[in-house]
Each structure stands twice: as structure tokens, then as C-alpha cells.
Write a structure and sequence with these properties.
Layout: H1 8-19, H2 21-24, H3 27-31, E1 34-42, E2 45-49, H4 52-69, E3 73-83, E4 89-99, E5 102-103, E6 108-115, E7 122-127, H5 133-136
Parallel strand pairs: 1-7
Antiparallel strand pairs: 1-2, 3-4, 4-5, 4-6, 6-7
Length: 145
């Protein structure tokens, strides 16, 4: 089991693990940070991923969005951490989606609900996630498609 204290180092590792996969296509790295069921609250509404199949489908759609936007860098900036009484952590960060040093959309702030796990901190939810729908042209569905 990992330490119950979420450190700055843990935050940096978490941010890398949820950012790099979208540039490299490493779904296993992204999946390693998710605890099912996984919920994302987006501007288009809530999304719930209930299975590995849901995660794969949703990840592929985000890769389509990365391609459509021509992104070559996703930078997440840590903003704050709140340790909750139940052992979970609320980790807040700002996301910058970049192409050749130019922001493609305004930065946005999200908060992930993290749980300690023997494999590392895993998220069960993201509040204020950005859906792929703006860039893929696919209508939002609760399954993340």
C-alpha cells in the first residue's frame, strides 16, 4: 500500500501519468490511474466509464481530438491538494492544450478525486473535465463515447 499522504512528488507523477498518454497513445499508463467506475463531469454533462472497454473507447476518442487539434503538448499545472478525512485526496490542476507553443483553447481547471491504491493513487472522478466532443464532432453519451 502506498503512503496515505499525497505528496508533491505524487502529484507530479500523477499529472505526468494523466498527460503523457495523450501524446504517446499509452493507454496502459492512463488506465493505471483510473478506478472504476470512473466519472467525468464535463460541460456537456456527466460521463461514467464502467468497464475497460469504456475506457479504451473513450481514450481513442480523446486521441482523435488530439489529432484534430494538432496538439503536441499537454501541460497540467498543479494548483492544490486537499486531504479528506476518508483518506481520499482532491487534486486540483490547470490544463494547457498546446500546439507548437500556442494554446489551442483557454486553460481550464479540473479537480480529480484520488484514492490510495497499492499500485499508486487512482482517480474515480474528474470535475470539470473537457470532453472530446468539441473536437471529434461526436455527441456526448454517458458512456464517454
Amino acid at each position: 500500500m502506498i503512503s496515505a499522504l499525497f505528496t508533491d512528488s505524487d502529484f507530479a507523477e500523477f499529472i505526468d501519468d494523466i498527460s503523457a498518454p495523450f501524446m504517446s497513445g499509452q493507454i496502459a499508463r492512463w488506465r493505471a490511474r483510473i478506478r472504476l467506475p470512473f466519472s467525468m463531469v464535463t460541460g456537456a454533462g456527466p460521463v461514467t466509464l464502467k468497464s475497460d472497454g469504456d475506457i479504451v473507447r473513450n481514450f481513442r476518442l480523446y486521441l482523435e481530438a488530439v489529432k484534430a487539434m494538432g496538439l503536441n503538448f499537454v501541460h497540467r499545472e498543479p494548483l492544490g491538494v486537499e486531504h479528506c478525512e476518508d483518506g481520499t485526496v482532491l487534486a486540483t490542476y490547470r490544463t494547457h492544450l498546446m500546439r507548437n507553443g500556442t494554446r489551442m483553447v483557454d486553460p481550464y481547471t479540473s479537480t480529480a478525486l484520488l484514492h490510495p491504491d497499492p499500485e499508486g493513487w487512482r482517480m474515480s472522478a474528474i470535475l470539470n473535465a473537457r470532453g472530446h466532443h468539441d473536437w471529434t464532432g461526436r455527441p456526448p453519451k454517458d458512456t464517454g463515447e
